[in-house]
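Hi support team,

I submitted a single chain yesterday and got back a structure, but I'm not sure I'm reading the token output correctly. Could someone confirm the output below corresponds to the sequence I sent? I've pasted both exactly as they appear in my results page.

Thanks,
R.
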Amino acid sequence: MPNPRMKPPDMGLTEQEAAYMPVVERFKPFTLTMGEHVLKYNLFIPETTEQALPLVVFMHDMGTVSEQTDRTLKQGIGALVWADPEEQKKRPCFVLAPQYEEKSAHDDYTVGWSAEATVELIREICRRYPVDMNRIYGTGQSMGTMMLCELLIRHPHFFAGCFLTAGQWDPERMAAVKDEHLWIMVSEHDGRAFPIMGQCMESIEAAGGHVARGHVDAKADEKTKAAFCQAVLKQKADIQFTWLDKDSVLVENAPDFPAVHHMCTWKWAYLFEPVREWLFGQRLA
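Hi R., thanks for writing in. Yes, this is the structure output for that exact sequence:
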């Protein structure tokens, strides 16, 4: 993760990200009180809920920590892409986007109260709405990925599948997720996520897990991205560890240093439609 003392550059939204911003209005803000803590969140409820539908849970990055409930919806498309009208035609689902008001995952591989609060929030959403309990999907970026890794360790097979971007966790403990269904995407020039998550993959393999690997240009066309994803999936592994080549994640006028490669990762990751399709193919039963 970027140094928390360093203010990240404001690179704004790319043209692709900006196109999704109207989807913000499709979410509703709520709060969940748990003892002395209050967790704000945003929820997209699909138009048709006659049958149980999947739930996608998006966990944001440290730069999006805020008291403003919809901040997580406006920093990028990690939550929005799933609720887009065209996406809903293909893959209808509920979308849950918690808003964290403080840092919730740390570089010493510890998490705050909001980690377990997020699990309780998911359970509460499942009690209130017709969610398919065999198709709860997790996704996150940076801090969100870090917290999601810890939740995967603590709550085996809680998530049917996860899409993890621009993050890493404790290589000594990540072997515990060897039987989960994960697609991981980082930038090759991310100074922490690429090497440390690579160590996590080695730990998983040492424990008997199977990891597929692959890399591609972040700005590749749809045909190339589809072929790349197909090649990765042909390796027939539960865990996909993929990276975006060299400096391909950098957007126009972005400075070139590892923290920027880190923050630019999720500007491209959620645009990989075959990854979204893969995620919705995962089921617990």
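A quick pointer for reading it: The chain is about 30% helix and 20% strand. Let us know if anything else looks off.

Best,
Support desk
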